[in-house]
Design goal:
Length: about 425
């Protein structure tokens, strides 16, 4: 009997269970655990149906689905996604890529086999098999520029209120936005998020679904939530992505952050929470996000965003050791693997080399170590942020000059910018 169903699942327990249930339902099925071998096997066997998991080492199920459906030899094979990763975005994407059914894991053991068998059984004389031509067409690969804007990028609490002089670089704490074609992504909610919210209310966007990625809950990264006017507007949805601490969930941490301004009830806007771990997520059709843990006190994330054929990394708090690394300090290497070839790296460059020596192991980098890290890893543009609040404009100007000199001296093919409020980059 020819193989009717190929199941691709890296998890041997779930994979073998699926196989068993399909056989009980009278279907001939095989399991492939190595996703990298799946495409060739589907081509060779030409089954009627493939059942794909999404999160697999090697190639993920949605990419595999896309490849099968765009290869004329396999495009007519029907597909079901069976996955525990069931964000609405995944389901939409699965449909767009040609899957006819999305079954959430854990699935119902009693009905799974029957459900698949019924799906395969022709209903009526002319089984309505969805022709490839009728599949919703994929959006064309986006090549439009992304707009990255800095709303704040300083550390600490200096500024005019504390008697510090005005600064061309600004005193607001971290908040950066990245404008995709249809969505706005906001990174951190330092005091810079206040003016961003005001701008959004002045020039309202059609899409009131905002994404907020929080690296961590140190005060300078959340202190702007109280002044974020979109949070006061019930028309907005705030999709908050972040991580909790081992003893406290993201939900509890966020509630605490909102409490001083909004009380125990929280803000009027709608909030959707995504507590993430170190992993890659499909957050919107065409936008992939890798969260990773950064070298900084407490649970702190950095983010790699892949969207519109661009790669942008946001890691404002994290200590790279540079030339001072010991054999046991492999963080620079880990980070290097994540950031390689990025179009933009936004990185912690808090200290001058001299001040770094006095502040080793504080969880922040010297800007020169950040320059070398970016240069070694073939970054196109490095944006240094989280400048120490004790530095005046002259010090920051010197920092920019020294960084440029280093790039020339080491022959890095890279542009370095020192972050300042109001800086816009087209990526
Ligand atoms: Zn911090």
């Amino acid at each position: 009997m020819a193989t009717q169903v190929i199941v691709v699942d890296d998890d041997p327990i779930v994979g073998n269970l699926s196989l068993e249930l399909l056989k009980e339902a009278g279907l001939s099925a095989v399991l492939i655990q190595d996703s990298l071998k799946a495409q060739a096997a589907v081509k060779a066997e030409k089954p009627e149906l493939v059942i794909l998991d999404i999160l697999m080492p090697g190639i993920d199920g949605l990419t595999l689905l896309h490849r099968l459906k765009t290869d004329p030899e396999t495009a007519g094979i029907r597909a079901i996604i069976v996955s525990g990763k069931s964000f609405e975005a995944e389901k939409t994407r699965a449909r767009q890529y040609g899957a006819e059914l999305f079954i959430e894991k854990p699935y119902d053991v009693d009905s799974f086999g029957k459900q698949v068998a019924a799906f395969l059984k022709p209903s009526g004389a002319d089984a309505p098999r969805q022709a490839v031509e009728n599949l919703p067409s994929l959006p064309p690969p986006a090549r439009a520029d992304l707009k990255l804007s800095v709303w704040g990028c300083r550390t600490g609490t200096a500024g005019p209120a504390t008697g510090a002089a005005a600064s061309r670089y600004g005193w607001r704490t971290p908040c950066l936005s990245i404008e995709l074609e249809k969505s706005l992504m906001i990174f951190d909610a330092g005091s810079g998020i206040g003016p961003l919210g005001d701008e959004l209310r002045k020039n309202p966007r059609e899409n009131k679904d905002l994404w907020l990625f929080l690296t961590h809950f140190h005060r300078d990264h959340i202190q702007g939530l109280a002044d974020f006017s979109c949070a006061r507007d019930a028309a907005y949805t705030l999709n908050v992505v972040g991580t909790g601490e081992p003893h406290k969930s993201l939900e509890a941490m966020l509630a605490e952050a909102f409490e001083p301004a909004f009380g125990a009830e929280g803000p009027p806007c709608r909030i959707e929470l995504y507590e993430v771990i170190e992993q890659t997520y499909e957050i919107l059709p065409g936008a992939r996000l890798t969260a990773f843990f950064s070298n900084h006190p407490g649970a702190t994330l950095g983010f790699v965003l892949h969207a519109q054929n661009k790669k942008i990394v946001y890691c404002p708090d994290g200590e790279v050791y540079g030339e001072a690394a010991t054999a046991l300090q492999d963080y620079d290497e880990k980070l290097g693997g994540l950031i390689r070839d990025a179009d933009v790296l936004v990185h912690d460059g808090r200290f001058t080399d001299e001040d770094y020596k006095k502040n080793r192991n504080s969880g922040h980098s010297s800007f020169m170590a950040a320059v070398d890290l970016a240069g070694h890893n073939k970054i196109k543009k490095l944006l240094l942020v989280h400048q120490d609040a004790r530095y005046d404009d002259n010090e920051l100007d010197r920092m920019a000059e020294a960084a440029e000199a280093r790039v020339a001296e080491r022959g890095y093919a890279m542009k370095v910018l020192v972050g300042r409020e109001g800086l816009d980059l087209n990526v």
